[in-house]
Amino acid sequence: MLALEGRQLGNYDVVRRIRVGGMGAVYEGKQRTAFDRRVAIKVILGNYATDRDMRRRFVREARTVARLHHPHILPLIEYGDEQGLLYLVMPFIEGGTLTSYLRRSLPDLHEVSAIYQQLLDAVEYAHDEGLIHRDIKSSNVLLEQRRSGTPYVYLADFGLVRTSRQAELEQAGVPIPLDQVPGTPHYMAPEQTRGIVTTASDIYALGVLLYQMLTGELPYDDPDEVQVIQMHLSAPIPSPCDRDASIPADLDEVIRTAMAKRMEDRYGSVSELRQAFLAAIQETAVNDDDLPINEVFPIPGSGRPISTPLLPVEPPAPSSILERRARAVANPALVRREQRVTDDARKNRQRITEPVYEQARRRRFTWSTLAAMIVPVVLLVLLIVPRLLGVGLFPVGVPLVGADPTTTISVLPQSKALQDTFLLTASPQVKNPDVTTRIIPDHSVGATATDSRSTPATGTTTIAGVQARGTVLLVNSNDSVISVPLGVTFTSTSGVQVQISQSVDVPARHGGRNGTISTSAVALMSGTAGNIPPYTLSTKCCNGLTVSNPYPFSGGVNAHQVHVVSQADVNGVSGPLSSLLQQQVLKQILKKLHPGEVIAEPPVYNTTVAPD
Q1: Whose CB among 129, 136, 150, 478 lies 3.0–4.6 Å from 114's, allowing a Cys bridge?
Q2: Active-site residue among 36, 53, 135, 289?
């Protein structure tokens, strides 16, 4: 991977790498002409940096984002090309992605609504501009923390964007291999596997994202991405309520419609999805108003007699779970009602329990005073009298009052293997490893090996016959011009038929001399039979013309079979030979390694097969 830390790209200094994807990376940088303003710099990595299609896609992303002006779409600051390295510069968002936000804690319905509506606004604007994002996912949603508490949303990464017109032209419905479908499998609509991309594909991804925001999990998840795509195609749509019973059922229906397998069963637009989402949120607030006050906001101690002592409850065992906030929508009216009911409960409790409490307190005082006087006396008698008489009531070693206890502590050493994973960057531009930046030196090693093998040719093919060609002489003894059309056939004395190759006009007899003209002709049948000697052709034609061949016809060849080398012959030799040559090349590469070096990735072999 190319190391960019410390380099300058145009007007920007690269500071550190923030995020690495399959085809690119994002770095933090400083803008020199803006007082070192923090920016995010996106670049293409590895072989993709020289791929023409990837570079064209990168330029298309820059051009697309440059013409978008929406408060919830991450804007473009600059597009640049530094010695063939393309880069995009965008604002640096401190809050990170929605993915990391959901890992910290699950948002309540108020936060879900605020974040989701901002995202819907951004996608709806893109659709109105004739664009389909095609890669909506939590890692492409950036959050900026503000004083209001609700994160501010930016939609980013338009690298797979398609225009609506392009999508219409590309909707051929041709299946795509599941491991080659553009996009992120966990958010991919079923029709994308057939090469079909519409605004409904973005709505499907928005449904997946809503499920993830409510539950903290993806609806379909598997280590095998192809299996994930298969689940999008055929698996039932999971219910978020099955994961968390506090999620309103109305939101479950919103997700089911947005993630419908058939495009026509989904919401027709982002506007329809927004209306359904807001209706579900409002219905949740209404349903909360209908609940009894002690169910919405439980009153402390309301379900327990006041005079019953409360026993300590054993705390639950600690476990690693996401912080889950209340799902109910805040309602100030309910809060006020709770305060009034709680005050009344306290007043009622005071009037009912006061007489009973006084009576119980007097009984406990009488018995406790007597016990406090008797118990110390009995204990002193049991401890001191046996000691004076030389009698031991307790085993040896058990300390009595004032004795020094003796404790044996055993320390057993225990070893544990520690494991950690680090992301290292290999660069040919450094000479020594740098622990701070985690950059290590690398270099390319190559080798070549050649060999040859002989193999019999087992393939056959038929060579078609060739027609003989020659010239015919046409003689006109009439006083007028005679026209001979193309395709007229003449037969020789040996039975061979010839045909002139073009239409001709034979001149008339003039000044006592016959008119003559020569023209090309070809034997109708291919093969050597058409190779006729001179004057084999002598016939009359066309009201007075004499036809002959003053020269022989030649070039006729019979059809015949020849032996050729088939692809099976080549494969039978190249397969075993390639394996042998790869072993030889690997041995040469290992000999070229310096002490302490290892091969970072398997060698890439280029095999060329050529005939002698």
Answers
A1: 150
A2: 135
